Amino acid sequence: MTKTNVSTEIKILLVDDDEDDFVLTRDTLSEIPDKKYILEWEPNYEKAREIISRSIHDVYLVDFQIGAFSGLDLIMEAQQHGITAPLILLTGKSDLEIDERALQVGASDYLVKGTFGLFDLERSIRYSLEHAKNLAEIRKLNTTLEKRVEQRTRDLAMALQELEQTNENLRKAEKEILKTLEKERELNALKSRFVTMASHEFRTPLSTILSSASLIAKYNNPGDEDNRFRHIGRIKSAVNNLTAILNDFLSISKLEEGKVECNPVPLNIEELTSEVTEEMQALVKEGQTIHYVHKGSAEIMLDKNLTRNILINLISNAIKYSKEGKSIEVRTDFQNANLEIEVEDHGIGIPESEQGHLFTRFFRAQNASNIQGTGLGLTIVKRYIDLMQGSIAFKSQENYGTVFSVKIPAPALSLHNTP
């Protein structure tokens, strides 16, 4: 860029179409002591504009009128092209309007020809150079400041982003903690409810076991076999009731803790259901029968344990809530990669006003209050079916019976094994 050190030689370009003004200016500059000025002259506007664009001079003295052109336009163009060296306007007369316009377009100073001496010219050049130097420093500081502001803005934006991410992580952590606490509260409530329920439900079978065990001891004579067997049967039934209560609680506890997973394996649904219905024969009341029918393919992919528990729960409920002599129908049907299970009984049914609560934990319908149970069975069945991405529905009419319908997506084994 241009030299701005006034203690060395100073290159000046005079843009003026009057050669006499060039001679006069040259002579004036030569008389200034302790300064070395190199003055160059360009009378042509276009050539002057090209020379100024190269920024090879320290100071520019620009006449107000350069032929048909205005020196103000030349100064304005120089400013627009980023020339930082001072441009001093020279004019033939003192005019406030010209003075103001000169300052507006970026002139460093304003001198009236014929009125300034060598000291006025020296002072104008010196002040203009100093002013240009100060402006350059200010621009440099501004540039440095802008860079710092930009960097600080980027740093702040990054810090804000990190803070937002931290806040988001904290919100997620808080949500997880609250979720965990809620599950803990639910689990504690479940355990408390179970203790209350168990203390009530355990009392009857334990009393039965105690009384039957005491009575068995009295039947030692020949011919008392029937009485002994009857009380042994009562003890077995009571133990089965206790086992069912404990199994229900353990199942719901594992579900609440997320410890139950769905693991499909190849199985024969007809064989599995037949096996379960045969086991349930041991629990039927006098005169009750279980009829099972299967349709469609039997070889499928399904979680065996979950399916078995669903069947056991639904069939045991059908037995429990049906009277002696009633039949229970179990149907399985595999079509279009879906397994449908239906368990129908002709028992006490579910009151219509209470059907909306059927899958709620510990819910017992009013007409089932005298039948032993935990109120957890259907909740467990629903949770198992949800894990298998299936659905369960029912139709029931009080005193006529209930039909539970389960639908579970399950690919046929032949399709599953197809490469």
Care to give the gist of this entry?
The protein has 419 residues and is of the alpha/beta class. It has helices at 19-30, 45-53, 71-80, 96-105, 118-201, 203-216, 225-256, 269-280, 304-320, 377-387, 413-416; strands at residues 10-15, 37-42, 59-63, 65-66, 69-70, 87-91, 109-112, 265-268, 289-296, 299-302, 327-335, 338-345, 391-397, 401-409. The protein starts with 9 loop residues before the first strand and ends with a helix.
Q: Name the quaternary structure.
A: single chain
Q: What's the total count of β strands?
A: 14
Indicate the structural class: alpha/beta
Indicate the percent of residues in helices. Answer: 40-55%
Pfam families: HATPase_c, HisKA, Response_reg
Keywords: Coiled coil, Kinase, Phosphoprotein, Transferase, Two-component regulatory system
Catalytic activity: ATP + protein L-histidine = ADP + protein N-phospho-L-histidine
EC number: 2.7.13.3
Tell me about this structure:
This is histidine kinase. Its EC number is 2.7.13.3. It catalyses: ATP + protein L-histidine = ADP + protein N-phospho-L-histidine. It is an enzyme of class 2 (transferase). Keywords: Coiled coil, Kinase, Phosphoprotein, Transferase, Two-component regulatory system. It is built from 11 helices and 14 strands. It is rod-shaped, with a radius of gyration of 52 Å. Helices cover 51% and strands 19% of the residues. By secondary structure, the protein is an alpha/beta fold. The N terminus and C terminus are likely disordered. The two termini are 77 Å apart. The strands form 4 sheets. A 5-stranded parallel beta sheet has the order 2-1-3-6-7, with helices on both faces. Strands 9-11-12-14-13 form a 5-stranded mixed beta sheet, covered by helices on one side. Helix 2 runs parallel beside helix 3, helix 6 packs antiparallel against helix 7 and helix 7 crosses helix 10.
